[in-house]
Xyloglucan endotransglucosylase/hydrolase (Solanum tuberosum), 296 residues
Amino acid sequence: MVCFNWVSLSFVMLFMVGLVSSAKFEELYQPSWAFDHLTTEGEILRMKLDHLSGTGFQSKSKYMFGKVTVQIKLVEGDSAGTVTAFYMSSDGPTHNEFDFEFLGNTTGEPYTVQTNVYVNGVGNREQRLKLWFDPSKDFHSYSIMWNQRQVVFLVDETPVRVHSNLEHRGIPYPKDQPMGVYSSIWNADDWATQGGLVKTDWSHAPFVASYKGFEINGCACPATVASAENTRRCSSNGQKKYWWDEPVMSELNVHQSHQLIWVRANHMVYDYCTDTARFPVAPVECQHHQHKTNHN
Ligand SMILES: *[C@@H]1O[C@H](CO)[C@@H](O)[C@H](O)[C@H]1NC(C)=O
């Protein structure tokens, strides 16, 4: 009798754990296209790229501010030509976008992580990193934290990029459009690996990226609600205070600033801010970043 109860109890608990972890993806996200290339196995979601198609998923809601996190284990072995992306984006011709793009490589060669920020439809703010670990060996967490003061890109909670609000200098900052959360995998062998020189080797397909640990801690904006109303709902005011509007969230703390300096010194391989061939005059926000770094 005792044994029977224990078995049924553990069965129920297992069932509930299964529900919680696998329902998490479905709670927050839905497939975007090529549904048959996206499979779940327990808490793990796998996205597959083959010669027929890539695939992707998107959040069911849009958000204004907060933090989104996923844990990703990137395509193992030969991933040359593939790009896996995790990003936030608003809609329309003047959209804003915060991107993580993982550019695959041949077996044994390092991935490149490219980040970019679009403001009012304009990007061209690429930075590139080589990570301090092999992102295809294990799951690592990738987060985007967004508030009215800054957009912070984090890898395993280490900040790798900050895009600050410099509106006081007349520089537009993305803070008025709700953003969806997206991920996709696709073939980009026209540009991704060694500038497009290395092509995708389809004999190594399918290329599989695995995901788990889906978290969104933000203010959801229902599509049915007018945008002014969403802006009001998602701003802290006298009654409610969102965690991302706390003063400590308005800039990196000292420890995080040091982490970012370490990342930039040891792992950054490209920064649009220092690409004088592309931008003979450094973009305005770069002049400020430079200034700020020098003073730290
Ligand atoms: C791939 O590996 C080569 C050789 O190590 C490196 O130059 C390149 O930056 C790596 N990444 C990409 C995306 O090409």
